[in-house]
Amino acid sequence: MSRIGKLPIQLPQGVQLTLADGVITVKGPKGTLTQKARPEVVIEVKDNHVLVSRADDSNASNAYHGLYRQLVNNMVEGVSKGFSKQLVINGVGYRADLKGNVLVLTLGYSTIIEYMIPKGIEITTDGPTKIKISGIDKQQVGQVSAEIRGLRGPEPYKGKGIKYDTEVIRRKVGKTGGKK
Fold first, then answer.
1. 95 contact partners, CB below 8 Å, separation of at least 6
2. Tens-place pLDDT, residues 147-157
């Protein structure tokens, strides 16, 4: 039995979960999210709680049990509170600017990088070196922040590049003018 899968999910006030034709729909104050349900997992709503259980004792049911419990929990949390990640830009001349629906990044390359902001994601800049990415879909927020970070990942010698605000970069010692 999955330890995560058997935990009930509390539905906050203003959040509704419906299950119709194998599709889970969660509506809340921030928006609506949908997810296809697998036949290996049974999802029930009882007394403002969501219970996820296995349909049988197969290996597939066991694998999907904890996964779908966490997916539903992330949907409920997303439509009620939302998710956000923060990126920090380090480097001389490295900066980010927001122009409408485009994030303009100057990252030390010969060209300026323009990143189109996808639907459902909100990006704000807190000065030229801080980027905040927020939205209701946890997977999409993580994917967008990983794509932006991947444009110029942090390097270990000077720490230049884009990193998460909680990320710790292990610094390396550069070359030394060693004696022979």
1. 89, 105, 106, 128, 129
2. 999 999 999 99
